[in-house]
Specification:
This protein has helices at residues 2-13, 126-137, 157-168, 171-177, 188-191, 203-213, 261-274, 304-316, 341-344; strands spanning 17-24, 31-37, 41-48, 54-62, 69-74, 82-89, 92-103, 114-119, 142-145, 182-184, 227-231, 234-238, 249-250, 253-257, 279-283, 322-326, 332-337, 348-352, 371-375, 380-387, 394-401, 406-413. By secondary structure, the chain is of the alpha+beta class. The protein has 2 domains: 15-103, Sandwich (Immunoglobulin-like), CATH 2.60.40; 114-413, Alkaline phosphatase D (PhoD) (Purple Acid Phosphatase, chain A, domain 2, 4-Layer Sandwich), CATH 3.60.21. The strands form 5 sheets. A 7-stranded mixed sheet has the order 11-12-15-16-18-17-19, with helices on one face. A 6-stranded mixed sheet has the order 10-9-8-20-21-22. Strands 4-3-6-7 form a 4-stranded antiparallel sheet, with helices on one face. Helix 2 runs parallel beside helix 4 (171-177) and helix 3 runs parallel beside helix 6 (203-213). The structure holds fe (ii) ion. Fe (ii) ion binds at residues 121, 148, 328, 330, 355.
């Protein structure tokens, strides 16, 4: 018994971080920190203020049933304040197993410029790695992963976990998310298999691995992985287009299958209605528009009743400043949804950010009457920035390659993204 106890303690004192730390759900007074230990052990997260004083700490146990992953929910911080954090073995507090720093968000309504990066379809290769480095050099305020991040292609729990670990260990990605909050949804390949929907056997394993390995706070009672969060004057509604798809009739047309599912639709309506942000970004892995390569069925246009329901919801709630973001198709594009004008009151603009790797699909360069831009090269991501300094807030879109070249830059005034007042 004594020998076993000694061995346990020795093992714990030699623990190292297998992945992380990474931060997420960064708000005015709180942040999530996630990491994975290489064995069962206890680890202490300490958050320090500018004077080096510990303002928050918590010891958590890494256990095998959650793949030795740890999730700290840090509360009680000050807004607009920089903090450092360190992770240690409580018995060896002088050895930092992981460390990082972050700045809490300014209070809602503060006029601070912010930039959010949107990226999909990444591999653990040099080109993708250079994109993560570029994001860090440009000091983005948040990273949104739109899926195929990573490619997994199985719902086997151990394989799912292994792929999240491999993705998280890419040094440039690890360096980025240590101090930049990361938010994620999945597309088909990280959900479990190409072009799959909510009927996929084993999807509970995919959700478990996702919840374990990404810094997030998914409510345990919530199915799927949808989430919303504010970054400055931009609020992002990150939808799950996989978990519920084709699992039930659509709430808008019972003769057709759902895409988002009734539960997610109810959530989305409530969150959109409550939003006070000037710009509202509705994002999924799959694209919203119909310009796809031949024979592709895996996009919102294959569920036209739910796409129309989204347009009508935006119109019903009289939402201003809404833009769409998708990934998946291995082309970077901007498309105007001319057909949304009647329901929404203005033409929704869709940005497509794919891929971070360099595998372009030539046949995805499909025509669309509202196509504004198409880039057929890889190692690119999208930045959306809000600069509230002017009289009228402006959203700026930039497609940027790993070398830092701004390949397409456009400015979208809040005035353009609202219904014209009726005479
Ligand atoms: Fe992809």
């Amino acid at each position: 018994m004594i020998n076993l106890l000694v061995m346990t303690l020795v093992g714990c004192s030699e623990a190292v971080l297998s992945t992380g730390p990474a931060i997420g759900c960064l708000e005015e007074t709180s942040v999530c920190v996630a990491a994975r230990a290489d064995r069962a052990c206890e680890l202490d997260l300490r958050v320090l203020d500018g004077d080096g004083s510990v303002v928050w700490n918590q010891v958590l146990s890494a256990v095998e049933t959650s793949d030795f992953t740890l999730h700290w929910q840090v509360n009680g911080l000050e807004a607009s304040t920089r903090y450092d954090y360190v992770i240690t073995d409580p018995d060896r507090a002088e050895v930092f197993l992981g460390a990082g720093a972050f700045m809490t968000q300014a209070p809602a309504g503060s006029r601070v410029p912010v930039t959010v990066a949107f990226a999909s379809c990444a591999r653990e290769d040099d080109g993708s790695s250079a994109v993560w480095t570029r994001m860090q050099l440009r000091a983005i305020d948040a990273l949104v992963l739109l899926g195929d991040t990573p490619y997994i292609d199985t719902t086997d729990l151990q394989q799912q976990r292994k792929r999240y670990r491999e993705f998280a260990r890419v040094p440039s990605f690890a360096a980025l998310v240590r101090g930049t909050p990361v938010y994620s949804t999945w597309d088909d390949h990280d959900f479990g298999a190409n072009d799959t929907d909510g009927r996929l056997p084993g999807k509970e394993n995919s959700r478990q691995a996702f919840a374990e390995h990404r810094p997030n706070r998914l409510p345990p009672e919530q199915a799927g992985i949808h989430d919303n969060f504010r970054v400055g004057d931009m609020e992002i509604f990150l939808l799950d287009a996989r978990w519920f798809a084709r699992t039930e009739p659509s709430p808008f047309d019972a003769s057709k299958p759902t895409l988002l599912g009734a539960e997610q639709w109810t959530w989305l309506k409530a969150r959109l209605k409550a939003s006070t942000a000037t710009f509202k970004v509705i994002a999924t892995g799959m694209i919203f528009n119909d310009a796809v390569r031949p024979n592709k069925t895996d996009y919102w246009g294959h569920y036209p009743h739910e796409r129309q329901a989204l347009f009508e919801l935006i119109g019903e709630l009289k939402l201003e400043g809404v833009v769409l973001v998708g990934g998946d198709v291995h082309r970077h594009r901007i498309v105007r949804h001319l057909e949304s004008r009647d329901a929404v009151g203005y033409e929704l603009v869709e940005f497509i950010s794919s891929p971070v790797h360099d595998q372009i699909i030539e046949s995805a360069n499909a025509p669309h009457p509202g196509l504004l831009m198409d880039i057929g090269t890889g190692n690119i991501y999208l930045e959306l920035s809000v600069d509230p300094a002017g009289h009228i807030p402006v959203l700026t879109s930039r497609f940027i390659d790993s070398a830092g070249r701004e390949l397409d830059v456009r400015r979208w005034s809040a005035d353009e993204l609202r219904a014209a007042s009726k005479p």
